[in-house]
Design a protein that fits this description.
The structure is a homodimer of 657-residue chains. With 657 residues, chain A is of the alpha/beta class. Chain A is 30% helix and 24% strand. Chain A has four domains: 9-95, Beta-grasp domain (Ubiquitin-like (UB roll)); 127-209, Roll (Ubiquitin-like (UB roll)); 217-354, 2-Layer Sandwich (Nucleotidyltransferase, domain 5); 374-581 and 592-657, no CATH class.
Chain lengths: 657, 657
């Protein structure tokens, strides 16, 4: 590192993304990327121990500390760990898809996210700052320090009925005198039930010397089973000033909530998982602070949305009974807690507010999404859905809401699918089939050779095969087709998507009848849930003003093809709206508006949960939905018409061939 | 200890008090005394290290572990440490006055305590218990555990708008299921300001399996500068079931609040004093539990009254600015805190509520006393006073109250008096003088030979000397009297109360002109404070319906003689009422009645504090009061008349002699 000089400036160019940044010679490459807004995954926080931040040095020179995370082959190709590399000359850097997984997820989410969200809310953050200059005490006016402060706040800002945290009382005398009686007070309003007689009662959670109103920040978090997303919010400007995402460290203890709950039954298991997610949160906070240069003591609050299991584990509450019938959470509304008491590295005064939940499998993430999407603000009906292993659905408007969760199984995440993988580099996502010879045309994430099929790809493949007549509406292969792509494999009939030589894995990538069956079960569970709910409130698809699709997976699906297979109701495409991470959206918006925070409580209370697991209607609907798109053609009139037409064309075509 | 058998019963007789108890052979003598209700002081808690629990074995045999706290002479006299002695045979025990100091103080306090207290309050303890049997969850009704609990409380007891402590949420799932959905919930109402729109909002602080309503206790404490008094309250029966008193361990760090505050300025000084008083509190709690056999987990709350300095130190709040002009406390109202967070050995759910204060030198103890005495309930005027080194006075009624503190100095505690001692065995308390020969007749506490003069004795002596014409109204000795009792000593003129051979100390016990001067300064400060306050609100002594005297010292003074020297206003004796430890009284009553707890907040807010330290009126009144009883004879018409008469009689008598 002796060759570098901090005075000399060099330019670093990042691909893909075409981002340039000028940094001092000797700057750490990971830091340069972060400063440039290039999102490189570094799960160990830049310690060099995880090997996730590998980048390709296409041009120029870095100094590197080599660790055992880098193979000889990689080293010779020019691959380096960004966190272990320091800039020497101008550089051209390629960030491979593995290292920018989160970036990919985030950008994929946002590309189709609608701007139509909750409306009409006032910018009134629950966290507020007030600056007061107080007259110093005299013998004529020697009220207590606290009385003086409260009097000042009342006179200057008409604030009354404040409660005061004991931690504030503890440092009050010193701060007032050190600052010559000029102080900034932070207050927090937590939503209260809006019954008559109750009012919002702000609590004083901090006092700082001088005028610190400019430094006024909070955090919004979505704690997902797979990923944790955080945003740093500037509460003066109503802006996101930094954001970050990371895998939930709990993944090592199981991929879904059921295995996590099971882990909690082990000795100290709950404590372990609680600490693990807190570590993930702390890593994200560290990155947010690093990106924004905000000091940790100016963060006054955390708004957290997560499903019921994630919320209970974060708070250290035994999740056992979420998993056991009749599936009861400990509570739907949790009191705010001191974030630092959970091990979260923020200052003592910062409180953590968790979104209220509806039931064991309809959690604060859904309430947050519903509020963020403004479902509760409209008279017209909305169908809100978050598709995944556990799919949550909500139907309602400003007057009422019903909700349910449908256990779809892991097919949408690539689970139980022969060549299924999570949405990552090399996953087949787009699929088209040439009607004349039934040859496939595939596209993968990152444009590389394929290595598997992700959930959204699976939907597109099955829809394509159905429309081409390669499979029938029962999901079985047409066994009399003039193509070698359909063949009998070790798991029964299958369609070859890519020959071994065209893949990264050196094997044929196929989709099997078993895979199709698994997808049909998954989509049937979602649709049967929707049907059961809508029947229970006496509405039909035609009554829906809009369908809101939340969640990372949902944002990447093709609407038309999802309707074709019977996952989504048969409605015009323009009625579907993607909101991306609705949970994070709601956490952000409620950080900006106490009105919406009040709404969140109200929404959680007004939602009626339907327990589908032993519901007879649901079982009947489920069986009827085990067909493409559905046993009852009238449920999917458009699709049925299209399929009939295609079949005719197809027949014609094949006859003329 | 091998000789004793737990099967054999023996009888222990305690004097004075004439108490018998039958215990098993081998029982510890201190424990036997506690079980018999005989109060023996054991400041080290029975570890054998303090030597305060010495008793005289008059008859019978004990086994003893001898420590260095017992001199050879004591041992030969039959004195033993009770905590280090175990019962062998039937015993007759004499508890000397030193070992029952607290008993003496307590009983002295109560002998003249009036029953006229706060009236008309409902028995509605802020701490309540509710038993509910909940229907177990089903698939049709799988509300969260907390919702189920709150629903049950609403249906059965019409409780709504509850807030719930996080600690309760944490154990909720387990307790509900372990107890088969039959649980007892403890709620706590903390007083809220009674402005429109505010309501009492009970918080759920504990949940226990089964029906535990019978076990329903709380603690009331007075934290005094010198002594700490605690009572264990049965909240079902509205009864005190155990009480205990101990010296505040902080005494080792200084006798008054000023030296304690000074100590807090040392490194870790505040922490040290905080821990010290907590240790005292813990010792008292231990004794209360031992007396009552109540289990610690059934104590749900602590109500604590103390002066502003004691309260701030207990809560760990820097008391520095109480001592520095313009004398500002940190706060008048303190949020409730978890008692265990201060180191107090109660269960986690128990909250500690400290009485609100008015000013740096008018603390929660005075507010507590005023509420306990019902001053705020009467239209007619009350003068409330707590006499001591720091004398606090209050004048007011149900509509208004004014208050002040008067720095009387330590004379009332025996400080600054040549032979002054605290009220303990051998302290001269009663004094009469034979007009014919001016010889004294004295009585001491415990009836032993005298060893000094306590504060109440000092008042009686000065009044007696004044009435006998031995001293003049200026406090100076009449130097032409036919008695050798008045003589010139090393500190100027003095009166010999006891000759060396009659005393425990082997020296003449005298009262000097300097002593009298110090007492005059002390009483002048109190009276000047009263005068200044009453003038400020435009009332005279005639307007006072009653005078309430609170505090351990106050309870032992002679009213007539206190009027004679000008300490108390010249009013008929029947207008004076003793309430003993008003601070403890208020803490107890507010533990029994949420109405009174609300009153405490209101009283603290309605009191207007007058800062006397640089008040010109006060200074003038003080100078005028440096006379016996007062420079202005019309302030004390009865006394003036009596003195005139006595002087005449005296002249006549001496002429005829």
């Amino acid at each position: 590192m002796t060759k570098t000089s901090p005075d000399k400036k060099v330019k670093v160019h990042f691909d893909p993304g075409n981002v340039d940044i000028v940094v001092e010679q000797g700057e750490n490459l990971l830091q340069a990327a972060i400063a440039a807004g290039v999102r490189i995954y570094a799960s160990c926080g830049g310690a060099g121990t995880c090997g996730t931040c590998k980048v390709l040095i296409e041009k120029g020179q870095v100094e590197t500390t080599r660790t055992d995370k880098l193979s000889d082959e990689e080293y010779q190709q020019g691959i380096r760990q960004a966190c272990q590399s320091w800039v020497v000359t101008d550089l051209t850097i390629y960030v491979p898809v593995e290292s920018r997984l989160e970036k990919a997820v985030l950008s994929r989410e946002q590309k189709r996210v609608s701007e139509v969200l909750a409306t009409g809310w006032r910018f009134t953050p629950p966290l507020s700052k007030f600056f007061v200059e107080l007259p110093p005490p005299t013998l004529e006016d020697n009220a207590s320090d606290l009385s003086r402060l409260l009097r000042g706040l009342r006179q200057r800002y008409h604030l009354s009925n404040l409660s005061v945290d004991f931690e504030v009382v503890k440092k009050l005398a010193k701060v007032l005198r050190d600052s010559d009686w000029k102080v900034t007070v932070t207050t927090l309003v937590t939503a209260v039930k809006s019954r008559a007689g109750d009012r919002r009662r702000p609590r004083v959670i901090n006092i700082e010397p001088g005028d610190t109103r400019e430094k006024h920040y909070s955090l919004a978090f979505d704690i997902g089973t797979t990923t944790v997303c955080g945003q740093l919010l500037d509460l003066n400007r109503g802006m996101v000033i930094a954001e970050s995402i990371a895998y939930n460290g709990q993944i090592s203890y199981g991929e879904d909530v059921i295995t996590r709950i099971a882990y909690c039954q082990k000795p100290r298991g709950l404590k372990k998982l609680q600490q693990t997610v807190v570590t993930t949160i702390n890593e994200i906070i560290e990155e947010l602070l690093s990106q924004s240069k905000v000091a940790i003591e100016h963060i006054g609050h955390m708004m957290v949305a997560g499903n019921t299991t994630m919320t209970q584990i974060l708070l250290g509450l035994e999740p056992k009974y979420i998993r056991l019938a009749p599936y009861t959470p400990v509570a739907n509304f949790f009191p705010p807690v001191e974030a630092s008491s959970l091990g979260i590295k923020v200052s003592n005064q910062a409180h953590l507010y968790t979104f209220p939940a509806v039931a064991s499998y309809v959690g604060g993430d859904i309430v947050s999404g519903v509020v963020g999407a403004g479902v509760h603000q409209r008279k017209n009906l909305t169908f809100f859905m978050d598709i995944g292993t556990n799919g949550e659905i909500v139907i309602g408007n400003s007057d009422w809401m019903v909700t349910a969760s449908c256990s779809a199984g892991p097919a949408f995440e690539g689970g139980g699918i022969k060549h299924g993988i999570v949405a990552s580099q090399g996953a087949i996502e787009e699929f088209n089939i040439k009607p004349s010879n039934l040859e496939p045309k595939i596209d993968t994430i990152g444009g590389t050779k394929p290595k598997g099929i992700c959930g959204s790809g699976l939907i597109n493949i099955v829809a394509g095969l159905l429309e081409a007549g390669v499979i029938g509406q029962n999901g079985k292969f047409n066994r009399n087709l003039p193509t070698k792509r359909v063949r009998k494999g070790s798991d029964g009939y299958e369609y070859v998507l890519a020959r071994a030589r065209e893949t990264q894995i050196g094997k044929d990538i196929v989709i099997t009848e078993v895979d199709i069956d698994n997808l049909m079960r998954a989509k049937a569970a979602m649709y049967a849930g929707y049907q059961t709910l809508s029947k229970s409130v006496g509405i039909s698809s035609r009554d829906l003003e809009q369908v809101i699709i939340a969640g990372a997976f949902g944002s990447n699906i093709n609407i038309e093809k999802s309707i074709t297979i019977g996952l989504l109701p048969d409605l015009p495409v323009d009625r579907f709206i993607f909101i991306g991470n609705g949970s994070l959206l709601g956490a952000r918006l409620t950080s900006f508006s106490t009105d919406l925070l009040d709404d969140a409580r109200r929404v959680a209370q007004m939602m009626t949960n339907f327990e589908l697991s032993e519901n007879v209607d649901f079982m009947n609907n489920y069986v009827a939905a085990l067909f493409l798109p559905h046993t009852h053609a009238k449920e999917f009139p458009t699709v049925s018409k299209k399929l009939a037409k295609l079949t005719n064309n197809d027949s014609k075509q094949r006859i003329t061939a």
